[in-house]
Amino acid sequence: MEEKEVKTFQFVVVGGGIAGVTCVEQLSSQTPCADVALITAGPHIKAVTNYRQMSRTLEEFDVEEQPSSILQEKFPNLSVIHSAVRSLDTKSHRVQTADGRYFGYNKLCICSGGRPKLLSQDNPHVLGIRDTDSAQEFQKRLSNARRIVVVGNGGIALELVYEVEGCDVIWAVKDKSIGNTFFDAGAAQFLIPSLEADKPAAAAPCKRLRYTTEEPTPEAAQTFTADRHSRGGSSASTESGSALGPDWHQGIILKGSEQVTRRVSVEYQCEVENIFTSKDHLTSSQGTHRHENESWPVYIQLTNGKTFGCDFIVSATGVVPNSEPFINGNTFAVAEDGGLCVDDHMLTSEPDVYAAGDVCTACWEHSPLWQQMRLWTQARQMGWYAGRCMAAHASTQPIELDFCFELFSHVTRFFNYKVVLLGKFNGQGLERDHELLVRCTKGHEYVKVILSRGRMVGAVLIGETDLEETFENLILNQMDLTPYGEDLLNPNIDIEDYFD
Ligand SMILES: Cc1cc2nc3c(=O)[nH]c(=O)nc-3n(C[C@H](O)[C@H](O)[C@H](O)COP(=O)(O)OP(=O)(O)OC[C@H]3O[C@@H](n4cnc5c(N)ncnc54)[C@H](O)[C@@H]3O)c2cc1C
Ligand SMILES: NC(=O)C1=CN([C@@H]2O[C@H](COP(=O)(O)OP(=O)(O)OC[C@H]3O[C@@H](n4cnc5c(N)ncnc54)[C@H](OP(=O)(O)O)[C@@H]3O)[C@@H](O)[C@H]2O)C=CC1
Known about the structure:
The chain is of the alpha/beta class. The chain has three domains: 195 residues, 3-Layer(bba) Sandwich (FAD/NAD(P)-binding domain), CATH 3.50.50; 159 residues, FAD/NAD(P)-binding domain, CATH 3.50.50.60; 83 residues, Enolase-like, domain 1 (2-Layer Sandwich). It is 21% helix and 28% strand. It has ten helices and 26 strands. Strands 1, 2, 5, 6, 7, 8 and 20 form a seven-stranded mixed beta sheet that branches. A hairpin with a 2-residue loop joins strand 22 and strand 23. About 7% of the residues have low confidence. Flavin-adenine dinucleotide (FAD) binds next to helix 1, strand 2, helix 4 and helix 8. InterPro entries: FAD-bd_OxRdtase, FAD/NAD-bd_sf, FAD/NAD-binding_dom, FAD/NAD-linked_Rdtase_dimer_sf, Rubredoxin_C. GO terms for molecular function: oxidoreductase activity. Probable FAD-dependent oxidoreductase; involved in the cellular oxidative stress response. Required for normal sarcomere structure and muscle fiber integrity. Keywords: FAD, Flavoprotein, Oxidoreductase. Its cofactor is FAD.
């Protein structure tokens, strides 16, 4: 990097999503005399509010999109810089931003999140959903759509196929059942009837975030616009904002152009063969749906031999960590999924550089009951722990891996059911000798526990089961449950009393 005037901070955090903001909050409050900077590409920051610890590892919180001034008012030692980091020189401990400025750091934490891993990067008919801009683009395109194709079998696809009304939805999944990143086939079977039924008239009250549609402050907007122009790109695809999160769809209308309620058909065990825009590619035997003789803006050919015309395709096919601007010119260890490898102190392989949230890959030896998933809760936990590690290392204090990394836990909602996932909820990485116990009442609840050598190692709880705390304890204390056998899920036994 050429010599320029450099302002140096003790701590620099890159990224105004949940991971970055939590890290900054932790650093600013723990080290009030230190100079802390948050450098973020987006005009807003995402803050955790109403944090509630539901049990030892389960947590719930709201998320608010806020102007960064709120954060600065709270922490006088914090500077917020609205510009994207273009490059990092770990040797000189400096970052360069898109507007040509340089900032030095003693310790840096990269929390730049991820972006959708799209089926096609440059096809205007293929959309991804990540931030407020891309959600609004999706909403706009949907309002004129009669049919869309959703590809992918994870969180976004599950949410979309349930929420979208007023157009046909073809859902193409690689697997034999729906929602494979979260569920097994049994849970999928439990959930499928909800796709065929109408949505309840009054949806479950939303306890979480409402996204603002406010314009950014003029100052922030200016910097953001300048950054976008400097890359010569259009808004959504260049400088993405922070990821959406729980209940993102509650604030926007997800309706197509037709007067129909939800109409989803699932294409199982197939991937995308081809995407094209000319109807000439169609052979007579292809397509199984209404409007088959019509012309469509785009066609998608699946590996099961079927081709569908549609208004656009949603690629809900996962996330790629935003690690490139930081990797170039440095020697970071990068994981197979593109994430910056971090150790059990959230340190990357470069000195004084930490990473947290979707951009990082947890490369330490995990507790047998924890795995990384790119989720809101883990972004918060990693950001918080990274902040603590940075402060501890700066004052040469020892610090141990936080308890939240002992047990995987996630609370969410799918198809209007509460869903709690604990530990190795899908038997991830377990020997074949593990045992499953299942209790299911159609339309009411689905409870699955995974036992390995008589110990509970994971659970899936769908519906208002009220079992999460008891099961969390049973997983954490690794009690031998062999004597209880199937009574563990006997609905006539009050399991909480049983183990008191
Ligand atoms: C539609 C959708 C629904 C979701 N629903 C849920 C859910 O229900 N539950 C759940 O647990 N998780 C959910 N997630 C996942 C969750 O939102 C993410 O895991 C989490 O927000 C990641 O936080 P992060 O801070 O690591 O990254 P992000 O939120 O992506 O933030 C990254 C930040 O870095 C900034 N940035 C990027 N590059 C640069 C750069 N070069 N220089 C400076 N700044 C940069 C961005 O502007 C942004 O502010 C959902 C995700 C999506 C997309
Ligand atoms: N309520 C919640 O907790 C929610 C969480 N999220 C999070 O947001 C992030 C983005 O969500 P999403 O995009 O759904 O990502 P997910 O990682 O949840 O799911 C991606 C899905 O796409 C599949 N897939 C990947 N590549 C292809 C391909 N080329 N063709 C067909 N299918 C493919 C994956 O299959 P395979 O696994 O076999 O590769 C997987 O089923 C994730 O981190 C997710 O956890 C999102 C919404 C809700």
